[in-house]
Every structure is written in structure tokens, then in C-alpha cells.
Amino acid sequence: MVDETDKKQESGEAPQGAADDIMADWAQAMAEQSASETRAKQEDTEAAAAATTGAGVKPVPMPTLDDTTGKGSGNNLDMILDIPVTLSVELGRTKIQIRSLLQLAQGSVVELERLAGEPMDVLVNGYLIAQGEVVLVNDKFGIRLTDIVSPAERASRLRS
């Protein structure tokens, strides 16, 4: 007697038990994929909610640069000590018309608004930080600082 399973094997058909196993494997794989997609969507939703509400955000401690006690301020300023700045000394200013500017030649004298003997302005990156007087050191010009602008004044000038 020929069994039904033998006929299916001879005709190339899979036995019924094997087909059930394959379908069960597919069902399990589809369920795992569905669960994985559901978890991913849930994580995305939680991340979006955290981003909008600030949940899960941790503050990062930053060093302060305004240590007024004088102790330990060297450690805080170390990070900016190598930044180059432009220091310039301003003798005075004046406003002239372009016509007058074009007439200037070698030996011309331009009158400045500042009087002789007045202190010169010392600027760092265009901001007034001190005033001083011109000195001659080893055949080179220098400036002796006579008045330093207070930090409060410098800060107020930066804001305006």
C-alpha cells in the first residue's frame, strides 16, 4: 500500500507536516518583525517627546570665567590666554571732506581733535581699555598706561 506522504514526495510536494512547520516559521518571523517595528516607533515617539519637553536632558557643568576672589582665576583664564588680539593706540581723530583728503600731500598737517599733552587712547580690538602717554624706549615708541578703564565701564561700553 502506498502512503499519501510517499505520493507527495514523489510528485515534489512537501508533506503536510513540513508545510505547517514552514508556515509556523513565517508567522513567527512576521510577529518578530511587527514587534520590532512597534518598539522602534515607540522609541521614536519617546525621543521626540523628550526633545520637545526637555526630558532626559542633562546640564553640562561649564567653568566660570568671572572668579572675583582672585583665587584659582589663573586656571579659568588659561583657556583664553593664547588668543591673539590687536592692541592699538589712538592719537586723535578728525573728520574731513573727501576734497580735503585728496589734497593731502607729503608734509601736510592734519589737525586732530585732541590737544597736545592729552592722554592717548589704548584700544584692544577697537574697544577702549586704557589711556596713557607716549614714551621713547630704545629709539622705539611705547606707551605708559596712566589710567585703566574699569571692568564695569568696559562691559557697559560693550553693551551700548
CATH architecture of the largest domain, by name, is: Roll
What is the CATH topology descriptor of the largest domain? Surface presentation of antigens (SPOA)
- How do the strands line up in the largest sheet? 1-2-3-4
Distance from N terminus to C terminus (CA atoms, Å) equals: 106 Å
Cα-atom Rg, whole angstroms?
A: 41 Å
State which percent range the strand residues make up: 15-25%
Domain tally: 2
What is the number of helices?
A: 5
For the sheet with most strands, the description reads: 4 strands, antiparallel
Extended strand count? 4
* Overall shape: elongated
Short description:
The chain has 160 residues and is of the alpha+beta class.
